[in-house]
Write a structure and sequence with these properties.
By secondary structure, this protein is mainly alpha-helical. The protein has 16 helices and 2 strands. Helix 8 packs across helix 10 and helix 15 packs across helix 16.
């Protein structure tokens, strides 16, 4: 191990790879991955993960993050999201693993944002990305418009608002118009029903005091920081999904439903005394998470 560290520090990356590529030791293999990364041999690193996954997954949190980062560096964003789903279906590993797993979509999204920076995209490419059938490509294009004049792109955004299959992407498009304070009535496909809204008159989610108060209440009621943090993230996802609908932050069923859903997500055993009363809201939240 010390010899490998010394070789790595001396930037003898090819030698490190030669010494570790066929190893069955998890430390050796992570040195090999780091050497590939240092040489910008991303595809070779991904091949190593595929071949040695059974060994590498003994350090699952590190593997998950490394794997997703490598896929993002290769600009394989769709595969990154699919891989996250595969990791989500694996048996419970540890609390650290659950926390890492929860962070992975944010890592991919950040790479996408950097990839789709406005100055890197021509107007023609931006239009092409907006008209893509791939959810992640469309989200990246919408994000690229945050610092641009959206007027030339409104016809394409309007099409997303009505026709894009996923509700969450339609919501992201509407939220962009809210951020831009577009003072114009637009049609929006909300849960399969076409409604008319004026983005300038809509309230953005997460900005009111009630949301902040609920965040504090979750910590107080659950008495578990991990549970409350994940519950708040799940609520945020749900709020985006149902936007511009809002939730009743004072409804006791909301806190209990979030606890039921989050406990299941974290694979924690929790039996609620109010499962019947919360069943409809729990189903709605789960549907939003599955369809997001």
């Amino acid at each position: 191990m010390d010899n490998l560290k010394s070789l790595f520090d001396k930037k003898e990356y090819d030698l490190v790879i030669k010494l570790t590529r066929s190893s069955s030791d998890v430390d050796d293999l992570f040195y090999c991955l780091s050497a590939y990364l240092s040489l910008n041999k991303i595809d070779d690193a991904l091949t190593l993960i595929k071949e040695k996954k059974d060994v590498l997954k003994t350090r699952l949190p590190m593997l998950m993050r490394t794997h997703i980062e490598l896929l993002c560096l290769a600009q394989k964003f769709d595969e990154a999201y699919d891989t996250i789903k595969e990791y989500e279906n694996m048996p419970y590993f540890s609390q650290e693993g659950e926390e890492t797993l929860k962070s992975l979509p944010h890592i991919v999204r950040e790479y996408e944002r950097n990839f789709y920076k406005p100055h890197d995209i021509s107007e023609d490419d931006l239009i092409k990305f907006l008209m893509s059938k791939d959810s992640n490509t469309v989200v990246g294009a919408l994000d690229a418009l945050r610092d641009k004049d959206i007027t030339p792109y409104l016809i394409y955004i309007n099409k997303i608002l009505i026709d894009f299959p996923k509700q969450s992407i339609r919501s992201f498009a509407l939220l962009l118009l809210v951020q831009k304070e577009l003072n114009k009535v637009v049609k929006f496909n909300h849960m399969g029903k076409i409604i008319e809204v004026n983005p300038k008159e809509l309230k953005a989610p997460f900005v009111d005091q009630e949301f902040a108060d609920l965040s504090n209440k979750l910590v107080e009621v659950y008495k578990d920081s991990s549970l409350s943090m994940n519950a708040l993230q799940i609520l945020s996802t749900y709020l985006i999904y149902i936007y511009p609908e809002e939730v009743d932050y004072n409804d006791s069923k909301l806190i209990e439903s979030l606890r039921i859903v989050t406990s299941e997500y974290l694979k924690q055993h929790y039996v609620s005394e109010h499962s019947v009363e919360c069943e409809e809201l729990v189903n709605d939240i789960n549907h939003a998470l599955e369809d997001f």
